[in-house]
Amino acid sequence: MKFNLQILLILFVLPSILWGAEPENSNSKEFKKSVALIRTYQQAHDWLIPWNKKALRQRNGAALVLPQQQLLTTAGLVMNHTLIEVRKPGDDRPYEAEVILADNAINLALLHVSDPSFWDDLDPVEWGKTKLGDSKIQYWESKNEWKSISGKVKQLFIGYRSQSKAHFPVFEVVASLKSKVQGNPLVQNNKITGMIMQLRDSNLDAFPASFLQTFIKKASEKPYSGFPQRGFGWQQITQDALRSHLSIEKSQTGILIDRIFHYGTGSDVLQINDFLVSMAGKKLSNEGKIEHSEWGNVLFDFLFTDQPQNFETFSLEVIRQGKRLSLETHLEDFPAEKYSVPLKTVEHPPRYVLRGGVLFQELNMNYLEIWGKDWTSKAPARLSIYQQLESHLPVNKNRRLVLVTRVLPTSINIGYQNLRSLIVTEINGRPVHRLEDVKTAFENPRDGFHQVNFMPGSNRAYLILPDAEMKATDQQILQHFQIPHLERLSF
Fold first, then answer.
1. Using CA atoms, how far apart are residues 62 and 36, in angstroms rounded to an integer?
2. CA-CA distance, 126 to 117, in Å (whole number)?
3. Architecture of the domain defined by 232-329
4. Two domains, one topology: 25-226 and 232-329
5. Per-residue pLDDT tens for 7-30?
6. What pLDDT was estimated at residue 1?
7. Rounded Cα distance, 151 and 132, in Å
8. CATH number of this structure's domain 337-488, picked from the four choices 3.90.1580.10, 3.30.2350.10, 3.20.190.20, 1.10.10.10
9. Cβ atoms of 270 and 257 closer than 8 Å
10. How sure is the predictor about 200, in pLDDT bands with cuts at 50, 70 and 90?
């Protein structure tokens, strides 16, 4: 029996219409062999009790398979790990992975598995270009169940990690997904165009493929330099009087520089009250955004991560005291450890000194986060202000804010047990700028006593401890509270 062409077309096309079959050039390709399953065992340090660790925690996620036998995942998934297990899909055998590089500022990490058999039958990712519109999120629901759900890449925005003060590009992906799928691929047009970072407010955040590729390239360079960040703070000008005071025309768009950090891009050439009108040839709006050819209006921080290796110098245009100036700077990261109030660190245990039951620590983001995600409103105001006003503190010359964070009760410190989070200025007449100064000062008592002075405005001006009983008391404290050492000054 012969069928004419029209009947054949109906037979093939009609089922596709009725059953919603996807066109041939859709997101239907599966990337099972480009994704490995990860299980990590994490044990973070306890910054409230610095000689202890918190309870062991287990986390699950995924990693993308890269060439050169590497895996790409989020740094949050592997930080403070005691063990990293990886499995190939459908394989019950666990392999141990090691961290090659973890950039906790931007939340990305590279892993390696030394057992060569792990890499058999795995396929490195095929990168594509991220676009707004339809996408799929592919992931392992379990070791043997591969799933794919539809999503939509809604917009590009600039993500911010308060613990590291880092900015980076992120895509918002709308998808009906409740599972935590960090490390899994975002797929568009049969290519992997991103990696899921986190589930946030019922939507997903994903790193763009271009940003991931830049990270991988930078990771191959020694030493790894991290991603550039801006070295200034800014604000919008909404008051005509302020514009007039700064000699800025109403029609001129741009942002007002209100802080200069000690490090970071532009910190070497910008000044407070500069009106920044363009960066790298891109005009700034009054909201600090640039017009991008693909993504529309995005914050200017995108320029620092958009293939930053292409910029040997970085141009800025400002209006300063009514005069338009062209400035040149270079892209620069800011080293977290150089801050007077250091940004959050992982892996390293807390430093501390314990004398007479009085615990001394240095203020940093780890300590502030004891008060939770809302630490800016819940932590002692003085400590919060010091962290937020970092740019207004003197240039850091290995100085820190040393605190008495708590007092372990013993006979020589009766009456001091409720002291918390007091800033130390002197011990035995010696200025205190680091924990090492605490150790040295306690080696030099005055008239048989130790006097610890606190910053004016504290609820106590100073405390006194007798030196004659100090050594015996310290040994009792080690025994009673099961503390291994009186101090930890190195990592």
1. 6
2. 22
3. Roll (2.30)
4. no
5. 443 444 433 333 333 343 445 688
6. 44
7. 11
8. 3.20.190.20
9. yes
10. confident
H or E element at residue 11: helix 5-19
What is the per-residue DSSP string for 357-418? TEEEEE--HHHHGGG-TTHHHHS-HHHHHHHHTGGGSPPPSS---EEEEEE---GGGTT-TT
285 Cα distance to chain centroid: 27
Give the per-residue pLDDT at 397: 65
The verdict on whether omega for the bond into residue 380 sits within 30 degrees of 0, i.e. cis, is no
Q: Distance between the two ends of the chain, CA-based, in angstroms?
A: 83
Across the chain, which distance is largest between two alpha carbons, in Å?
Answer: 115
What is the chain's mean pLDDT, rounded? 88
The pLDDT of residue 310: 55
Q: Is residue 203 over pLDDT 50?
A: yes
Would the CA dihedral through 424, 426, 428, 434 be positive or negative?
A: positive
Q: What angle do CA 303, 340, 106 make, to 5 degrees?
A: 35
Domain ranges of the chain: 25-226, 232-329, 337-488
C-beta of residue 279 within 8 angstroms of C-beta of residue 315: yes
DSSP, residue by residue, 157-186? EEEEETTTTEEEEEEEEEE---S--TTPEE
Identity of the residue numbered 122: L
Which CATH fold would you assign to the domain 25-226?
Thrombin, subunit H (2.40.10)
Residues 413 and 174: their CA atoms lie apart, in Å, by 57
Whole-model pTM over 0.85: yes
Kindly give, in sequence order, each residue whose CB lies less than 8 Å from that of residue 308, ignoring residues fewer than 6 positions away: 214, 227, 228, 331
Q: β-pairing, 255-260 with 275-279?
A: antiparallel
